[in-house]
Structures are given as C-alpha cells and as structure tokens.
Specification:
Elements lengths: L10 H8 L3 H15 L4 E11 L28 H13 L4 E6 L9 H13 L3 E5 L5 H10 L3 E3 L6 H4 L8 H13 L3 E3 L2 E3 L5 H12 L7 E6 L16 H14 L4 E4 L8 H9 L4 E3 L3 E2 L2 E2 L3 H11 L2 E2 L8 H16 L10
Length: 348
C-alpha cells in the first residue's frame, strides 16, 4: 500500500515515531524512502556565500551576526562574474544545484538587480538555482521567480515554542510569511532547521510538524546539526547524540516522503558511518564542497569516495531547456554585456 502524503500530523503521532526502537524507525524510514526515491542516488548542491557578515539579526548560532565577535571578516556582495565562475566549478565537480546565500535581514531594492543577474547566469549554465537572502516580500519573490530562480531557502530553525530562545529579532510568523510569499510566486521551497541547540525531542518533533503540515511540503528539507562557533551564545552547547540526529532524519523522511532531506551544516563532525546511517535513514541530498557559508564542510573528494564505497551516485538534473529558459539565458547574456560593474558595498 502506498504511503499517503499527509498534512495533519499530531504531536502524539510524531513523538511516537521518535520513541520507536532505532532499528524499527530506520526500517520504516527506509521503506518510505524506497517508495519515492532511488535509495542509491543523492542530490548534490553547492552553497556559496555571496555576501558575508554584518547581519543585524541575533540568531544565537550564527557567526554572521554583527552582535557577536567571532573573528569573521565582513565581505561585500560578490561580483556577478565571480559567482558564475564558482558555479562553473561546482558543476564541473558534480553539483546539480547552485545555492547562493547572503547575510541580510532582507534584500534591499538596490540589491535585487545583482541577485537576479546571478540567478539568470547560473541558470544559463544548466544548474538549478537556489537563494537564501532573508525575509522576502511578495514583490521580491515574484522578481526572483521572473529571473528564473528554482528554489528559495528559508529555514524555520526550530519549533515555535523554542524559537524565542534562539532568535528575538524576527518572529516565527515572519518566517512563515516568507515561505507563503515564495509559494505564491511559484518558487520551490527549501526549509528545515537546526538540531543540537539545547532543544528537547518535543521541539524537534514540533519543527518537523510545522514543515510537514504546511499546505505543500518543502521540496528540500535541510537538517542542520549545530556547528558551535566561538563567540556565539551557543559555542558551549553540549554535543548532540549522533543517534538523535539520525532519528530526526528518519522522522523527516516519514513525514515528508516526497521531499529531498538534506544533510547540511555539521557534516564536518560526522564520520563515514554516521553519513551512511543518515543515507539509510532517508537523507538524499547534501551540500558539497569545502565550505558551507562560513563553517567547514567535508572536502568534495571525500564525499565522492564515500559515495563510491556505498554504491551511491549523484542525482542528475535533466538539462533540457524549455523555450522560456532559453529566452531567459539569452536575456542574461544581453544584460551582462550591458553592465560592466556589478560590485558595490552591500553594507552601505
């Protein structure tokens, strides 16, 4: 019998999943995974920080906040051509999706021509595009959609109940509103959270319930493990039990059967055996490369070596363009020729 796609999960049901014996939970998650995906394929994305630091938010986990002294050097918005050079390199090493992140509360009007030019240029290379720029208005979401953006990332981070312990400069509803604006614009949603921030198992269940009970499940669900950065309020948080992380992956897979569940931040702390367990539990997407925004990520060749040992292959993207995509690619070329300066101080 086919697993139903549900949007009405209760705390009691999800808590019961977390309480299953480990082997039973992984068997259930792997069974669901095989219904909807090739169990031996993993979607590979590369994430580039296009503007680093000087963020006014107070997220307790984040080294990019200007409220914490983490030694991070602030960087201006990258030139469009430099971003495209990184995208070409990512494609050459096996990425099918190129994600661009900027440390903003939300993009300003003056920022939009630059980020839309990046989207158009990356699309022209035949890669899927994803951006994370903070909160978006309906108009900004529509502008990104018109540029050809495929995915927008905006994490919920944790449960509504625990959220105030981590962030005070924007509300949970702000995050939900951005996801709604992204959906209205016809963009795909990438939204997940972070575990290991001192939250309870009930909070992990609450995060996944929020995601699974959205009107549409996010197409990508990043599950991040806290990276403890010196200078942030969570620098001394205790280690998360690896099995608790794997349980979160497995429950995410069961609740959102058709979503790509992504291993994101924290992979540097995971050994090969933990990676393999995560793939078995239903993770089928990774961020790939040496750096994930401002924290370390396993070297690309190590991922490929493990893929080879496990019999996993990178998921390929169909690169057949529709006429609209071809037109957008041509327009991107024209716009790039007309603009000889793309670099400016985004913190001004």
């Amino acid at each position: 019998m086919s697993t139903p796609i549900r949007h009405d999960w209760t705390h009691a049901e999800v808590s019961a999943l977390f309480e299953l014996p480990f082997n039973d939970l992984l068997f259930k998650a792997q069974s669901v995974h095989r219904e909807f995906f090739d169990p031996n394929q993993v979607q590979v994305s590369t994430l580039l920080s296009i503007k680093t630091g000087a963020c006014p938010e107070d997220c307790k986990y984040c080294p990019q906040s200007n409220r914490y002294d983490t030694g991070l050097e602030q960087e201006q918005l990258m030139e469009v051509e430099k971003v495209l050079a990184e995208a070409r390199a990512a494609k050459a090493t096996g990425a099918s999706r190129f994600c661009m992140g900027a440390a903003w509360r939300s993009p300003k009007k003056k920022d939009m021509p630059y980020v839309t030019a990046m989207v158009k240029g990356v699309k022209e290379l035949g890669l899927e595009t994803c951006m994370t720029l903070g909160m978006l208005s309906e108009e900004q979401a529509e502008e990104l959609a018109e540029a050809g953006l495929d995915y927008y990332n905006h994490n919920l981070d944790t449960s509504p109940e625990y959220y105030g312990e981590i962030i005070t400069t924007r509300t949970y509803q702000h995050r939900l509103d951005t996801l709604s604006n992204v959906r209205k614009a016809g963009l795909k949603v990438c939204s997940g959270g972070i575990v290991g921030m001192g939250e309870s198992v009930r909070d992990r269940a609450g995060l996944l319930i929020q995601l699974a009970n959205l009107p549409e499940h996010p197409e990508s669900v990043p599950i991040n493990m806290l990276v403890r950065v010196e200078g942030t309020p969570l620098a001394d948080e205790v280690d998360l039990d690896p099995f608790d992380f794997i349980r979160t992956i497995a429950v995410a897979r069961i609740l959102m059967p058709t979503s790509h569940v992504r291993l994101s931040a924290g992979r540097e702390e995971m050994n090969e055996q933990m990676h393999a367990l995560a793939y078995f539990a239903g993770a089928n997407s990774i961020f790939y490369g040496e750096k994930l925004l401002t924290t370390p990520n396993p070297e690309a060749n190590k991922d490929l070596q493990l893929f080879d040992r496990l019999g996993i292959t990178p998921e390929e993207r169909d690169e057949q363009y529709c006429e609209d995509e071809q037109e957008a690619a041509l327009q991107a070329k024209v716009e790039q020729a007309q603009n000889d300066r793309f670099f400016y101080d985004a913190t001004a």
